[in-house]
């Protein structure tokens, strides 16, 4: 089964041994970040540094100025954490020279810098709070920006495919700096309500569906009151959302959000394919529950596998999320259903059980695996990965 490892360009640039080390793991592909959100990352083996602090979302290549000139929303250039003028390009060249396929890794609707500079682009919750990390994907200007970003960041020289992350709604859940929101436990039903957007564009969308945005906002706030009063709201699943605000309201909100997400995904994939050479593979990081939001966008499996060439599915807690995608895989189409497995033990991954976990995923229908994240893993973790992939 094909295995690919995630990497950042700074894991490779400036480290002459990095590409060979990754190839020696037994992976066939590297999924290399070309557009990424803010992060603080460990580089345990790099000869020049141990910590890289990417202060804001940025692209890791020189942008096409003709594409972005005069536009109010455009990608941010990386700061001094970028190890070269074209860190993606330099890293990709080294990895390809080591015999690895290189695919781009593009983070879309997750950008705290954009939200700080342009708060009008953000998701606004039922209480009027803005989420600066979460661009509202229903806004036309945001959609145009994300679609063009997808095409440019995906189709880098030498890339044979791409993986689009956060190609859908982002919501409350977010590993924010010094995060302090766990004082009230929220299950995914309450998370959904806290992730509904009430910006003017979403308000107009609710009106088109026959909803009064003010009444919807009030209903959401009423539904959440018990959580604030009693310290938790841990119900999970779509029936819990229906219980909280009523089936009719719940269905209307999901209809609006699904329409926005689907059309963004269709536009992004179409833009990538228009810019890419023949045979370029387009995958989405995806969750089979359409109402979920975050890095793994909630999708309808049947729809998304008719749009993209496949999906990368979070499997850190087991392979259960694979089944809905496997069920809708089109025979003979070469559809990829990749199981994303953590291999950084310090971040909850399990490199020691990689062979078993990959085999379990294969029995559930996965035909590829992704390893998160070869650049962040310790030497001990990488030895376990190599033992699993090269037994």
Question: Secondary-structure map with pairings?
Answer:
Blueprint: E1 2-7, H1 18-24, E2 29-36, E3 39-42, E4 51-54, E5 58-59, H2 65-68, H3 87-97, E6 101-107, H4 112-117, E7 122-124, E8 130-135, H5 140-154, E9 161-165, E10 185-186, H6 188-195, H7 200-208, H8 213-230, E11 232-233, H9 238-245, H10 247-275, E12 281-287, E13 297-298, H11 301-304, E14 310-314, H12 323-327, E15 336-342, H13 354-363, E16 368-372, H14 379-389
Helix pairs in contact: 1-3, 5-10, 6-9, 9-10
What do these coordinates show?
Helices cover 37% and strands 19% of the residues. It has 391 residues and is of the alpha/beta class. The chain has an eight-stranded parallel beta barrel with strand order 1-2-6-9-12-14-15-16, surrounded by four helices. A two-stranded antiparallel ribbon has the order 3-4. It has a two-stranded antiparallel sheet with strand order 7-8. The longest helix has 29 residues, at 247-275. The model has no long low-confidence stretch (mean pLDDT 96).
Report on the biggest sheet.
8 strands, parallel, barrel
CA-based gyration radius: 21 Å
Order of helices and strands: EHEEEEHHEHEEHEEHHHEHHEEHEHEHEH
Which range best describes the helical content: under 10%, 10-25%, 25-40%, 40-55%, 55-70% or over 70%?
25-40%
Q: Reading side by side through the largest sheet, how are the strands ordered?
A: 1-2-6-9-12-14-15-16
Counting H and I runs of at least 4 residues, what is the number of helices? 14
Strand runs, count? 16
Q: Roughly what fraction of the amino acids lie in strands? A: 15-25%
Estimate the mean pLDDT confidence.
96
List unreliable stretches of 5+ residues: none
The best one-word shape is: globular
Q: Gap between N and C termini, in Å? A: 14 Å
Structural class, from helix and strand content? alpha/beta
